[in-house]
Amino acid sequence: MNVNVLIVFYSRYGNTRLLADAIAEGAQQAGADVRVRRVADLAPENIMRQDQDWWSARAQMSELYSEPTDEDLLWADAIVIGCPTRFGSPPAELKLFLDKLGPLWFQGKLVDKVGSAFVTTGTVHGGNEMTVHSLLTTMMHFGMIIVPPGYADTSMFAAGAPYGASAVTGPESDKPPTEVDLAAARFQGKRTAERALMLKIGKASLTSG
What is the 3-state secondary structure of 120-178? Predict the structure, then answer.
């Protein structure tokens, strides 16, 4: 039996993207089929063009990652969501993505999927935990089963947080996540995939029994 892991992220300069890719690596190490999707920018093009780091990173990421669809969400056994923080909360881009999931929530289509979250911030104590908790709270409303990384691996004592992988990257792309940040993210991806598989096997056993 295989497990499907969907990673949905928003990233402006590419730092959150690096954590998303590391989570994907960890999930793949656990044998999962993985899809990585980027939520689109909302700012007008003329605003984005004023920041060349943003504009060039956006162009690169748009080529590599498509936007998440309802089909992706229905396909997934586990959904991992990540973003930079904006004043202690998820950015508007990701919040809009979550708000648009109302129809799937109403139909109960997200119930019992495994959920996990990750974040980047520009400053130390810049809202890491608050933002992750906000994402997890939304998942609880969807009826998802939350799987945090916890302190279940030695990598989590060096970086990240027990609530979800995190990194302090600064506002620009010249300060990416460190290797210890990425190791914590890989562990989160692996743990999420493994727990999703355990749940899937358990549900199949109950059905067949």
Answer: EECCCCCCHHHHHHHHHHHHHHCCCEECCCCCCCHHHHCCCECCECEEECCCCCCCCCC
Contacts of 178 (CB under 8 A, 6+ apart): 159, 167
Cβ–Cβ under 8 Å, residues 116 and 80: yes
Bridge-partner residues for 117, per DSSP? 81
Which amino acid makes up residue 46? Answer: N
What does residue 84 show for φ and ψ, rounded to 5 degrees?
-75, 160
The CATH homologous superfamily for domain 4-208 is Flavodoxin domain (3.40.50.360)
Instruction: Read off the amino acid at residue 10.
Output: Y
Half-sphere CA count of 194, side-chain side, radius 13 A: 12
Structural Rg of the chain based on CA atoms: 16
- Amino acid found at 121: T
Question: Tens digits of per-residue pLDDT, 69-114?
Answer: 999 999 999 999 999 999 999 999 999 999 999 999 999 999 999 9
Which sequence spans correspond to the domains of the chain? 4-208
pTM of full prediction above 0.70:
yes
- Predicted local confidence at residue 173, as pLDDT: 46
Q: How far apart are the first and last CA of the chain?
A: 17
DSSP E strand boundaries for the chain:
4-9, 33-38, 78-84, 114-121, 145-146, 166-168
Going by C-alpha positions, the residue among 36, 13, 7 that lies closest to residue 120 is 13
